[in-house]
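Quick illustration for those who missed Monday's session on complexes.
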Amino acid sequence: MKILIIGSGGREHALSWKLAQSPLCKKLYVASGNAGTAQVAENVPLDGEDFEGLGNFVVANGIELVIVGPEVPLVAGIADYFAEKEELKSVKLIAPKKAGAMLEGSKDFAKEFMNQAGIPTASSKTFTQETLNEGLEYIQNHALPVVLKADGLAAGKGVIIAETHQKAKATLREMLEDKKFGQASTKVVIEQYLQGIELSVFVLTDGKDYVILPEAKDYKRIGEGDTGLNTGGMGAISPVPFAQGDFLAKVESQVVLPTLEGLKSQNIDFVGFIFIGLMNVEGNPYVIEYNVRMGDPEAEVVIPRIKSDLVELLDLTAQKRLSEATLEIDERTATTVMLVSGGYPENYEKGKEMTGFENLPSEIIPFHAGTKLENDKTLTAGGRVIALTALGKDIKEALEISYSGAEVIDFEGKYFRSDIGFDL
Ligand code: AMP
Ligand code: GLY
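Prediction with glycine bound:
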């Protein structure tokens, strides 16, 4: 089978690393990929939002299966574009259509969806510029801290947790009046702050059946001890020790099943990944957010734990035959530590030469995120540069391996958190 993955981060390297191992994979392309995907696939210089360019490439190269990694093309309707084109409609896709991608593309839609489906989530109310004064009043009467969320996609920056009413009101004005996040903050969801431990659960569905993939915990803040600015993710661990047995059973019955039922009842035919961000509040799951894709860096720990053939699994999913699939999971713990460019998530430099690959311990799976090849050199090309994944019998063993790699790979300005897993 000829396969195309869309995206260029660590998640797409993890996907391509796994798909390339399958005997069913005859040829693998990644658009646009990075220096890591180039080792297992052929990179294609096409952007995820260039639907026409991607469609033409798919036809010209006889691609049979397309997997869409990031959210932007999904929310922009890449699956609808393929479904509407005569020459593309038979291509198998792992990508929800726009209607399903709204679960990630609009926090207001997601809230309404959860409330209708009876899915546990923080209580909330949505405001627009027209209802700004009501929003300010709502904040004044709200317990602290209070959470404000830009409705649309904001590259992980659209959530503000305000400790005072004054800060919350100023933030609401910035979002609605000053359009701090552009179109994305035309609506703002104000919600109750949930106190608990976060984790993420990943579901793969063909719109009828589903499988639950291993759960993971992501470390979002830049600084040790979960301090400082939010990032795309500084490291991840799977499985999550506090989320076993009872808790996962509650997640399935109280969140996963009602989510899939809710989609069906709204006639939303969802084929793809559902990433459910959860807060464990005293042993009960509450949904913080939905994403309609795999997480990054969560994919870098979830995918290495999948023992089954992922081409077969995704192919069956795209054909709505997921019920025929089997899913075998590695019992070991996977950890990943992200090396980032100095200054990230604010300003940082790119184009730094990366060294040390030849000295990486063989147990490490290096998943490139922001890297590129130039004149046979691997250069940094983004804020998050490379995720070092390892498997071990427990968190401690896996992390020791991941961290031994973090010392070996070098580039000017390298930074990583040395406390991934500190809370477990
Ligand atoms: P999101 O962009 O929705 O993933 O939110 C970013 C982060 O904000 C989450 O990972 C949580 O750490 C935090 N967050 C979002 N909503 C809440 C909430 N209702 N209560 C507490 N923390 C939250
Ligand atoms: N690591 C969080 C995300 O992929 O959204």
